[in-house]
Amino acid sequence: MAVVQKLRAGDRGHDDAVREQYCNLISSLAAAVEAPSAVTSTSTSASQQTPTIEDRLRKLDDLYKKGLITEEEYKKKRAELLSQM
Fold first, then answer.
1. 85 compared with 71, residue with greater pLDDT
2. Mean pLDDT of the chain
3. What is the pTM of this model?
4. Are 28 and 2 contacting, i.e. CB atoms less than 8 angstroms apart?
5. String of b and e for 37-59 (b: at least 16 CB within 10 Å)?
6. First vs last Cα of the chain: how many Å apart?
């Protein structure tokens, strides 16, 4: 539950309420600061794990051998992958 108090200049809020708001603010800021580094490390990991054309050709071949794609789909995608070399 969020505690919101509007105080006039010179007034003091209840210490527990102020402390709770302060702790919530610090927790939110800490989470916001940590979030970008998590996204950055995920992006770096994802770019390092990008499959090579060779990997993609193997996967395509596997799909075709298992009957999950047609010969036409296989040939079309294979030509597309080979054109990227």
1. 71
2. 77
3. 0.44
4. no
5. eeeeeeeeeeeeeeeeeeebbee
6. 57
